Amino acid sequence: MAKKGTKTKTTAPLAPELAQKLLYQMLLIRRFEEKAAEMYTKTKIRGFLHLYIGEEAVAVGVMQALRPQDNVLGTYREHGHALVRGLEPNVIMAEMYGRQEGYCRGRGGSMHLFDAKRKFFGGNAIVAGHLALAVGLALADKKMQRNQLTCCFFGEGAMAEGAFHEAMNLAALWQVPVLFVCENNLYAMGTALRYTHAQTDLTLKGAAYGITAAAVDGMDLQAVMEAANTAAATVRKTGKPYFLVCNTYRFRAHSMFDAELYRDKAEVEEWKQRDPIPAFSNTLLQQQLLAEADLQALEARVNEEVQQAIDFAESCSWEPVEEMSRFTYSEKKT
Amino acid sequence: MLEYRMPSLGADMESGFLREWHVKPGDKIKKGDIIAEVETQKGIIDIEVFDDGTIGELLVQVDEKVPVGTLMAMIIPPGEDGEIKETPQKSAAPATTPTAAEEAWIATEPPPMAEKAAAAEHHVRASPLAKRIAEEKGIDIATIHGTGPEGAIIREDVEHAITARVAPVPEAPKEAAPAPPPASPPAPVAAEKPAPPAQAPAAPAEEEKARQATGASAETIRMAVAAAMSKSNREIPHYYLETRIDMRRAMAWLAETNKQRPVKERLLPAVLLLKAVAKALNEVPDLNAWWENGLQRKPAINIGYVVALRTGGIMVPAIHDADNKSLDELMQTLNDLIPRARALRLRSSELADSTITVTSLGEGGVETVFGVIYPPQVALVGFGGITDQPWTENGMLDVRPVLTATLAADHRATDGSTGSRFLTAIKNYLQQPEKL
Amino acid sequence: MATSLITYRECLKQAIREALQGDERVFLMGEDVGHYGGAFAVSKGLLQEFGPERIMDTPLSEAGFTGAGIGAALGGMRPIVEIMTINFSLLALDQIANNAATLLHMSGGQLNVPLVIRMSAGIGRQLAAQHSHSWEPLFAHLPGLRVLSVGTHEDARYMLAPALLDPDPVIIFEYTSMLNLEQELQPVEGGVDISKAKIRREGKDISIITYGTGVYKALEAAAELAAAGIEAEVVDLRVLRPLDDETILASVTKTSRAIIVEDASRSVSVSSEVSARITENCFYDLDAPVQRLCGAEVPIPYPKHLEDAAVPQPAQIVSAIKKLLQHA
Fold first, then answer.
1. For residue C326, what is the nearest residue in chain B, using CA coordinates?
2. Which of A98, A124, A229, C79 shows the smallest number of beta carbons within 10 Å?
């Protein structure tokens, strides 16, 4: 059942507007996170800060296959997913600054971005803890006969958790519409795949539960798009779960405080040669879907938006301490 | 081996100075013996022992400051080896050893008392509620004896103490005679010149000195009286009975008896009255009782006798086992109690044990006394003065020394017929003084 | 109103049945709730009545189906998740503590989780250390949860409905040792108040504060104490989080004494918390130290005599109170 392999070449040209939008999304993630790292060093952002840089093609490629009514669940490395889902950069940055104008009143920070309006369910920081939630959300959709899917992102580290296996089994057993997206960046924090999984062909773990599984080169945006479109369409059509493994790589450390003792610099450099952003923009330039000037304009627009996000976050306020207990329990009874 | 610890005589007593040991190792002691004198902010207090036995070891030196709860002496119970084998550990076991099962569940294993006392030198073992009530009522609880867990003072103790430390204030006399001034000296009823008590009552100056030494202000005593009497009037439905008693035979017998005695051993009429009350209580035991969740008859007849303080206020020491005391013993007891009451040097048991109260206001010229019972007792006997009055007997008019006796009794506990039997019994006993 | 004898089990079942009938969004899921009829026969017959969509057997995946319950609640359903026994609840504790309890606050008020989790708890059936836990305090420790303990037939019958109306996650502890107990049941219109403790017997001398299996034990002890002239008040906490301070403190202020009774072991327990609150708030109304009768601090052993000895029994409640009041 597993479709093995990592296709790297896709040639079908995209519509110019879509192409530019996708490039813009990847650039926004990249520049937004670079700025976040800077602000972290300036102590504007605290706690853990997990950067998605290098993996942008996965979020952008999968998310374009989703509809507004679909549910999305992410991990603690979710800034990119939030941005692509349409959460406002200003409000995300305010949340990362811990300000009350953030999505969660500043209470969640970098790891806990939630936006109920956009059906973005986190920002989940217990590895694999959100997979069962995804199954439950899909179960509710199925029971209520809503034709929508739940897309759940997680890393390959989560697949060693019991919760992953319970969730996969339940999803298959109950036949619920979940698109499981494994972002295999080869390291669970600092421990390489080969040290954490006896079976390193991850698609087999989905197949073992009778779930259709596929793998794709996560550095190739168009490949991810194609795989995600297929996956989403399958889920919508069958109402059953689907397991998509995106092989990718994070260029930055696991979190800010990480000496990266576990991998060679050469390895990182090698992966950077496959950076999805220049790869995609070069393709667009070659296909003349994009001019050099357009690229510069895009860069300028992204930089401006990121700066605006910083300016906004800087101008935001702290939630008063007296409000701290609010929402421990609901204020309105049903 | 029994332990003797520094008693807490009140919630605000933290410690006392041991001034004198009355015993030494090897001395035989009986329950109630005074074994030491301790000086507190209230003055010197005689410390009594609560067990029979032999003094094993004295663990505190004279003039040492002793926090409440400190181990002071070891007592060898009767029948045990008199040899002192070991000095007890400071961490003494709690009073009752819980079973293993209880131990598993009961959380509050008390820290060793001695350690606790040392650690909290300024602490009195009393429940927070007991302390609060005492403070609110303006009650000085320094002499309160705790009956709660581990001897702590609890609410009930404070409430008892409020009533135990003061006697009821007699209400307005029946006749228009002026009320006795607060400072009027209490005196036993006397129709003739009484022989002076063997031991002269303390002079006002001495009493004042004692009061200063003890720190008991007129105001705190007043507040205590106020609290007890308010409680009584609030809670006790009183009924009142009165009878007039011909005292001719009693006074004649007394005069004859005293004529044969040295001055020091002469009897006062008061002892006849007290003895008559005691014997009448044997016949009507329902009046020798406390009202606590119903009528609780008391096995011993302990008559509280009102002693007015010269500078205001009253003390009511108990005459223990009055029915078993001879007239001579009663006289000795009065001679002992009255001056000690005025010096505020009563024992805690003398303050707490009364089962009925007798108040005698004859000295002030009052004929009839209607008293207020002090809770939890159920009766109070009031005697007026003995005055010559017209009296008829067998149709003949005569002048006799007459005493008016009243009973104030708790209608929850008894009815008028009971009270009537009681007053009649007193009257009858006083017609046969030689049998008292 | 008519009354009749009814078992605790039947009360639980009627409550679930009523909930399923009353709200299409409600469904029951858990291990063996369907074809088996419930590990303790609480849901027997419900599969036949309501079908597999509403009575869902789950695999042995406590984390998985509890998390799915949370997700379904986020998705608009009103799931009743049954964790067969409290002993297995730790497998789901990550979901309960990290997701159910946190989502509303962590999302700044955006995502509430209207979920009910039922589990049977307690000791009494000689099931030994791994199947006799009284872990109510563990759950009562977690902000964001409402934690209920079913100590009476009334609550067994009428607690579920208000729990399902609560917008936030509610944990309900039921007690296997009580399932066959028969009692009279008075109808309660509109369910019971799951924010308040309940005075089960009035008294003036001491407050026995308890929950779960302690309630009937305390009532038994109170009846015996009454014969000795001691009027004990029995306070059924019912809601272990958030605690109903008002009722607890009013009772202790009235009686001046308190003893807290629970099966859970003493250290860091519900009684620890209640005791602390009493002392913090009613210190000057206390006439005696607050007492606690708790479970022994041991893994629960198998033999009956040791099992009985490991938790407070009515006789111990009686003797502890007599000791406190009469200073014997």
1. B148
2. A229
Q: Which domains, from first to last, does chain C contain?
A: 4-185 (3.40.50.970), 198-324 (3.40.50.920)
The tens digit of pLDDT for each residue in B112-136 reads 444 444 444 345 788 889 988 888 8
Residues 6+ apart with CB under 8 A from A78: A52, A111, A113, A122, A123, A153
List chain A residues with CB under 8 Å of C104: 327-330
Q: What is the pLDDT of residues B134-143, one digit of tens each?
A: 888 777 666 6
* pLDDT at res. B163: 67
Q: For residue B187, what are the contacts with CB-CB under 8 A and spacing of at least 6?
A: B194, B362, B363
**Distance from C-alpha of A19 to C-alpha of A10, rounded to nearest angstrom:** 14
Closest CA to A89 of A251, A316, A252, A309: A309
Domain-embedded: residue A329: no
Alpha-carbon torsion, ordered A24, A30, A32, A38, to 10 deg: -160
pLDDT at B101: 42
pTM summary value: 0.66
CA distance C95 to chain A (A): 7
- Position B356: which residue type? I
For residue A126, what is the domain's CATH number? 3.40.50.970
Amino acid at B297: R
Asked, for residue A7, whether it belongs to a domain, the answer is no
Residue A4 lies in a domain: no
* ipTM of the complex as predicted: 0.91
Catalytic residue among C10, C31, C62, C82: C62
Q: What whole-number distance in Å separates Cα of residue B61 and Cα of residue B19?
A: 9
Q: Provide the phi-psi class of A166: left if phi over 0, else alpha when psi is between -120 and 50, else beta.
A: alpha
The per-residue pLDDT for A142 is 97
Q: Of the listed C24, C35, C105, C131, which one is catalytic?
A: C131
Amino acid at C168: D
Q: Could you say which of C229, C291, C327 has the minimum Cβ distance to residue B106?
A: C291
Residue A2 domain-assigned (yes or no): no
Question: Confidence band (pLDDT; 50, 70, 90) for B227?
Answer: confident
Q: How many domains does chain A have?
A: 1
Which residues of chain A are under the pLDDT cut of 70?
A: 1-11, 333-334
Mean pLDDT score, C95-102? 98
For residue A244, give its domain range.
Answer: 16-314
